[in-house]
Design goal:
Number of domains: 1
Helix content: under 10%
Low-confidence stretches: none
Strand content: over 45%
Mean pLDDT: 88
Distance between the termini: 47 Å
Strand order of the largest sheet: 1-2-5
Largest sheet: 3 strands, antiparallel
Shape: rod-shaped
Structural class: mainly beta
Order of helices and strands: EEEEE
Number of helices: 0
Radius of gyration: 19 Å
């Protein structure tokens, strides 16, 4: 794996919902990458992008406050 084949910076959008009940907080969040992960490469005269993929993450969080 060569780090030069991948972009170092990613831009994206985030959306989520949260709920607070007494001392408990929970939520769900979705992160959508807007930039491609891989850089354009050339092989035997054909240009392509590695995986042509973007980042996407779904996260769930839960916290309890003791104060």
């Amino acid at each position: 794996m060569n780090v030069n084949d991948y972009n170092r910076i990613d831009a994206g959008l985030v959306a989520g919902v949260g709920l607070d009940i007494d001392n408990i907080t929970m939520g769900l969040r979705y992160n959508l990458g807007l930039t491609k992960v891989g850089k354009s490469q050339s092989f035997l005269g054909t240009s392509y992008t590695i995986s042509d993929s973007k980042n996407a993450v779904i996260s769930f969080y839960l916290s309890v406050s003791f104060i």
